[in-house]
Amino acid sequence: MQPTRMHLKILLPFRIFAEKTGVSRIVAETRSGSFGLLPHRLDCVATLVPGILIYENEAEGEVYVAVDEGVLVKTGLDVFVSVRNAIGGTDLGALRAAVEQEFLNLDEREQSVRSVMAKMESGFMRRLAEFHHE
Known about the structure:
ATP Synthase, domain 1, 9-stranded mixed β-sheet, alpha+beta, 1 helix, elongated
């Protein structure tokens, strides 16, 4: 009897990053820490943080993928990981550095842009209110 295996699909906003069959286990990172998925685990949804996603199948063995924030959905034997960005590789140290450099810095830049946009919006609203009162 063949052991049950999962089907993993890693989705980016504009393309499929990876589609793997025969996956025996997956480890992902959330705000609460890492958690593992096995084929018979109950269906679930998890919010992912920037980190390393690990999956294992017979063809490739253990594979590491640096992923940005996103969501993981397990339904039956199908696991969908939808993230903003992903980087594959074999060197775990290089992938961890990529997460820190690419994904976490992006969050800081986004926060800076959002702060500037909020200031511009409040300035616009103030000037609009002043114009309306004239």
